[in-house]
Amino acid sequence: MRKLSADVVVVGGGATGSGVVRDCAMRGYKAILVERGDLGHGTSARFHGLLHSGGRYVVADPESGAECARENAILKRIHADAVEATGGFFFQIEGDDESFADKFIEGAKIAKLPYQEITAAELLKREPRCNPKATRVMEVEDGTIDGWQLVWGACRSAEAYGAQILTYHQVTGIDVVGGKVQSVRCLDRKSGEEVVIDTAYVINCSGPWAGQVAALAGCHDVNVVPGRGVMVAMSHRLVNSVVNRLVKPADGDIIVPVHTVCIIGTTDVKVEDPDNLELPRAEVQKMLDAGELMVPGFRESRAVHAWAGARPLIKDDRVDASDTRHMSRGMAILDHETRDGVGGILTIGGGKLTTYRLMAKNITDVMVEKLGDDRPCRTDQEPVPGSENGKNYQVSHRLHDREEDRLEDQIICECELMSRKMFTELLRANPDASFDDLRRQLRLGMGPCQGGFCSLRATGIACAEGGWSADKATAALRLFLKNRWIGLWPILHGDQLRQAALDSWMISGTLNVESLPASEEVVL
Amino acid sequence: MSQVIVIGAGLSGLVAAIKSAEGGQQVTLISKGLGGLQLSQGTIDIHEQGLAGLESPAPHPYAAIGAENVLAGVKYLAKLLGPEFLVGDAKKNVYLPTAVGAIRPTALIPPSMAAGSVRDGAKWLIVGLRRLKDFNASLIAGNLSRLELPGGGSLSARALTIDVVAREGEVDSSALTFARAFDTPDFRQRLVAAIKPELQPGEAVGLPAILGVKQHDFWRELQASLGCEVFEIPLPPPSVPGMRLNEALTAKAKALGVRFVLGSYVSGFTAAGGKLVSVTVATTGAPQEFKADKFIYAPGGFESGALAMDSHYEITEKVFGLPLHGVAPVEELILPDYWDEQPVFKVGVSVDKQMRPLDAAGKPVYANLHAIGGIIGGAIRWKEKSGEGIALGSAWAATEGSENV
Question: Which of A134, A178, A258, A367 is at 20 to 30 A from A503, Cα to Cα?
Answer without folding.
Answer: A258
